[in-house]
Amino acid sequence: MKTDADDHRAQGAVAERLAESEEIRRAVFSTIESIAPDADAQRLPTDRPLRQAIELDSMDWLNVITGLQDRFAIEIPERDYGKLDTVDMIVDYVAARQAPAACRPTPIFNETALALPCTQHLIRGTTVTVRPMRSDDASLEADFVQHLSAQARYNRFMVTVRELPPAKLTYLTQVDQHRHVALVATVDRSGTEALVGVARYVVDAAGTGCEFAIAIDDAWQGCGLGGILMHDLMRVARSRGLVTMEGLILRANTAMLRFARQLGFKRQGGTEDRDTVSVVRTL
After folding, report:
1. What tens digit of pLDDT does each residue of 249-274 get?
2. Residue-wise DSSP of 132-166
3. Same domain for 93 and 225
4. Quick one: 83 and 18 in the same domain?
5. Do 240 and 134 share a domain, yes or no?
6. CATH number of the domain that 21 lies in?
7. What is the DSSP secondary structure assignment for residue 94, as one 8-state letter?
8. For 253, which DSSP code?
9. Partner of 180 for a Cys bridge, out of 159, 175, 261, 262, CB 3.0 to 4.6 A?
10. Nearest-CA neighbor of 218 among 123, 168, 141, 153?
11. Are 156 and 75 part of one and the same domain?
12. Which residues, given as ranges, of the chain have pLDDT below 50?
C-alpha cells in the first residue's frame, strides 16, 4: 500500500533528478561557450540542432565533444555523436552516462595509462585508420611528403623540399613512441595503404613538455582529420604526465594558427624569427 512517505520520497527523487539535469545543462552551456565564446549559450534553442543554432565547424564540434568528455568524466564513442544533436539530447545523454561522483575513477597519469590509439573513423565516406607510426612506414612517409603540395611541405618543414633525405626519413619513422611519439592516419588507396596525415611530438630536455608537428594531405584538410590526430596526440601526452605542448607555426600560415587556437593553444612571445609564431597550451 502506497503511503505518504512513499509519495514524499518519490517527489524528492524527481526534484533531485531535475536539479541534476539543470546542473548538467549549465555545464553543457559553459562547455559550448568555451568553444564558441561569441555564442550566447543561454539563449540557444535547446531543441534545435546545435550546429545549426551556432556556427561550429568540424574542429569546433570535436572540441565540444572533447570538452564534454573532460567536464563530465565520460567516454563518448564516435558512434554516439548522432545522439548529441541538440542541447536537450546532450543533457539526456550525459545524465544517462554520468556516474555518481563517488564512483568516478581517479585518472592515473603514467606512461601506460593510455595505450597508443589504433582506431577507425568514417570521414567523407572513407574509412580512416589512426595508428602509431611503425618503423616500416618509411616508404609511406616518403610518398606522403611527395604527395603534399609545395605550400603544404613548406608549412610543415619550413624549407623548400621535394622529398625527404634518407637521414630525415629515418628520424621521422624510427620513433621510440616514448620521447618521440608519432601517429599516422591511413586509407586504402587502390588496394594499397596510403598515409594521409601525421601528428607527432618530441619530449623536451626537462621531460615535462613537448613540441608537436602535424601535416595533413591537401585533399584531407578541413574534414576534421587534423583534429582527431591532435586530440589523440594530446591525450597520449597528458596520460604520460607531460604538462605543456608547444609548436612553431609560420606567421603566414593563418589556417594553422586558427587551428591551433581552436585546440586551445595560445601565442607566446620570445621567438627570434619574425616569420614564425610560437604557440603553447597546458595539457
Report:
1. 888 889 889 989 988 899 887 555 67
2. E--GGGHHHHHHHHHHS-HHHHHHHHSS--SS--H
3. no
4. yes
5. yes
6. 1.10.1200.10
7. H
8. -
9. 175
10. 153
11. no
12. 6-15, 100-113
